[in-house]
Automatic annotation (TrEMBL):
Its main location: cytoplasm. Catalyzes the phosphorylation of ribose at O-5 in a reaction requiring ATP and magnesium. The resulting D-ribose-5-phosphate can then be used either for sythesis of nucleotides, histidine, and tryptophan, or as a component of the pentose phosphate pathway. Requires a divalent cation, most likely magnesium in vivo, as an electrophilic catalyst to aid phosphoryl group transfer. It is the chelate of the metal and the nucleotide that is the actual substrate. GO terms for biological process: D-ribose catabolic process. This is Ribokinase. It is an enzyme of class 2 (transferase). The keyword Metal-binding applies. Homodimer. Pfam families: PfkB.
Length: 303
């Protein structure tokens, strides 16, 4: 079965500065090279879902600039339904500036631009596609009121909601958490939200309990090269990552979520296999440079 996935989220053009190491405060360094790529957490998640063959639609905003045109073109090339992406006059498309170190570690600064203008009204306009979807995915590079509006529609229509609480936000409105079926923080985000530092299996289980007590039935904590931890319906397990050499981890988490939304049965019955698939997809992403250029197609994941 082909899943229908709706992503509400950010669209950015990524400017990637390839450097040896981060400059110290006050230090000036020369970059080794510079590149640009399509990115943004929401857009990466949508591209990952679409390349894993989900029927994917996007709710978001770009500016009326060349970056906006480029991003719409790239999303369409991946067969993503862009009819609910609003072009905002006199506004910049979102941009991220990525400092990519030789180790593969990145530091990201983003300019929200048009992403900050995504509203609950945008979601109202797209109600029908949410009602016809299987999964609705969102993150925090677009405003939370729009996420709440989207999850309300999804919840009433009994569709599965996936919240990627990134970039990290300390105080997530209870209203949003109550409407969330699956939450997917990484270790840092989880610690900020729950106050529980992740050091071992016990702390992972305690963290999951924290989210379950908020009414969230599915918890997936991603652990970078250590894999991920899942807790659902009274069962939990740690699923290892594939052993690869990472050159750029940008969009690893986004690929994981998009691939998961494409592979998971709407009744969540195949959660283990879907996570293994998502881990394989993100292990391919970290072996290539850039966000969009590194996100694999289903055929590569299954190889
Ligand atoms: P990012 O912000 O870099 O996009 P994230 O912090 O949201 O990512 P991570 O926990 O770093 O998410 O990674 C998500 C998944 O990607 C992991 O659960 C793992 O399966 C895979 N992954 C990440 N880094 C590596 C790596 N170095 N080697 C293999 N797999 C990796
Ligand atoms: O998660 C990776 C994404 O976060 C990048 O593509 C960049 O745009 C930042 O927003």
């Amino acid at each position: 079965m082909i899943n229908k996935v709706v992503v509400i989220g950010s669209i950015n053009v990524d400017s990637i500065m390839h450097i040896d190491n981060l400059p110290k405060p006050g230090e000036t360094i020369k970059m080794n090279s510079f590149s640009k790529a399509g990115g943004g957490k929401g857009a990466n998640q949508a591209v990952a879902a679409a390349r894993s063959e989900a029927e994917t639609s996007f709710i978001g905003r770009v500016g009326d600039d060349s970056n906006g045109k480029l991003m719409l073109k790239l999303l369409k090339e991946d067969h993503i339904d862009t009819q609910h992406i609003t072009v905002v006059p006199k506004e910049d498309t979102g941009q991220s500036y990525i400092l990519l170190q030789k180790s593969g570690q990145n530091s990201i600064i983003y300019q929200a631009g048009a992403n900050s203008l995504v509203t609950a009204e945008d979601v109202d306009q797209a109600q029908e596609i949410i009602k016809q979807s299987d999964f609705i995915v969102t993150e925090f590079e677009t405003p939370i009121p729009a996420a709440i509006a989207a999850f309300k529609v999804a919840h009433t229509a009994q569709k599965v909601t996936i919240l990627n609480p990134a970039p990290a936000v300390k105080e997530i409105p209870k209203e949003l958490l109550k409407l969330t079926d699956i939450i997917t923080p990484n270790e840092t985000e989880s610690e900020l939200i729950s106050g529980i530092k992740i050091t071992n299996e016990d702390s992972l289980k305690k963290s999951a309990e924290f989210y379950h007590n908020l009414g969230i039935s599915g918890v997936i904590i991603t652990l970078g090269s250590k894999g991920s931890f899942v807790s659902l319906n009274g069962k939990s397990e740690q699923i290892p990552a594939f052993k690869v050499k990472a050159v750029d981890t940008t969009a690893a988490g986004d690929t994981f979520i998009g691939a998961l939304a494409s592979e998971l049965n709407p009744n969540l019955s195949n959660i283990h296999d879907a996570i293994v698939y998502a881990s394989k997809a993100s292990s391919l992403t970290v072996q290539k440079l850039g966000a969009f250029p590194s996100i694999p197609k289903r055929e590569s994941v299954l190889k």
